[in-house]
Each structure stands twice: as C-alpha cells, then as structure tokens.
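Weekly modeling sync, notes
Attendees: S.R. (lead), two postdocs, one rotation student

Agenda item 3: backlog of single-chain predictions. S.R. asked that every request posted to the team notebook include the full sequence so nobody has to chase files. The rotation student volunteered to paste the first one in as an example of the format we agreed on. Action items at the bottom.

Example entry:
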Amino acid sequence: MLDLLKQGDWKDAKWVSDKFNIKINTLKKQRQRKVGLPYHVFGKLVRYNTLEIQKYLTEKNYAR
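Predicted structure, as returned to the notebook:
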C-alpha cells in the first residue's frame, strides 16, 4: 500500500492562495506562462503537491 503522506498532499489553488497570500488569478497567470509553483492538471482539476511546493521554495531560497 502506498504511503500517501510521504508523497505529499494535493491541494487546490484556493488553498495555495490562502496559504501563500497569492491571488488565484496570479496563480492562473503563472500557470499560463509556465512559471511559479509546480502544479499538475488532472482533467480539468489543477492541483499542487505540498512536497513539490516545499522543494521548489527550498531551491529558490524562500523561507516559509
């Protein structure tokens, strides 16, 4: 059985917006330009993986 906690949680744009104080429209524009936080598209759903966000922020030297 997969340990989902080790893989990170999948969060929607609203959660990311609230957590990092980024407007949802800004996240959308970043996705269109292929910049910003890493994301995945599942059909019509956009999801952000918390482990990938953490790794991205660490690589970019953002403290959170």
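Discussion: group reviewed the output briefly. The chain has four helices and three strands.
Action items: rotation student to repeat for the remaining queue; S.R. to check formatting next week.
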